[in-house]
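Researcher: Quick test of sequence recovery. Tokens follow.
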């Protein structure tokens, strides 16, 4: 925590982007708005825009009181971090097409992936039906000559991960 004696101004603290939580008030209607890093900085309003305006006013009053009383003012992020960075690889074309789609929906890639992950957790599985092409599925299950089993009979496993998805031959493939 930073103390107000660090010679930082009121304007400095007002410019900091503290986390905002908006909670629907199921009993009274409207919303409760708060800055969790600024303990006790809380307000309520009938709608989200009003709640945000009132929260800015509550932040102003909270900071004034803290500076006047030499109360320690936490920096944004002083609450335990709840977000982590996730990195994954995807084909360039898929990424570009997804970005165009999500932009047309008014969201970014991060928001879209977060929506997918939350829905998967909610449904305790992939949030849509996953299946193989029916013909491919039949070939996988078949023991007849000329099926997918034959495609893999000469596979010797002598390929390197960097050859994956490059179109280079892998083993003695026949596709």
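Model:
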């Amino acid at each position: 925590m930073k103390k107000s004696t660090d010679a930082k101004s009121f304007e400095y603290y007002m410019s900091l982007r503290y986390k905002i939580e908006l909670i629907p008030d199921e009993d009274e209607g409207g919303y409760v708005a708060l800055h969790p890093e600024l303990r006790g900085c809380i307000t309520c309003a009938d709608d989200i825009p009003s709640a945000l305006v009132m929260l800015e006013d509550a932040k102003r009053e909270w900071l004034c009181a803290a500076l006047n009383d030499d109360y320690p003012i936490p920096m944004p992020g002083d609450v335990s971090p709840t977000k982590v960075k996730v990195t994954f690889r995807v084909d360039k074309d898929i990424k570009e097409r997804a970005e165009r789609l999500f932009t047309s929906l008014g969201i970014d890639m991060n928001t879209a992936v977060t929506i997918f992950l939350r829905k998967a957790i909610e449904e305790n599985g992939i949030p849509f039906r996953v299946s193989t092409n029916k013909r491919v599925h039949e070939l996988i299950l078949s023991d007849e000559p000329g099926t997918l089993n034959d495609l893999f009979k000469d596979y010797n496993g002598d390929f390197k991960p960097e050859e994956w998805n490059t179109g280079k031959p892998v083993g003695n493939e026949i596709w």
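Residues 138-175 form one domain.
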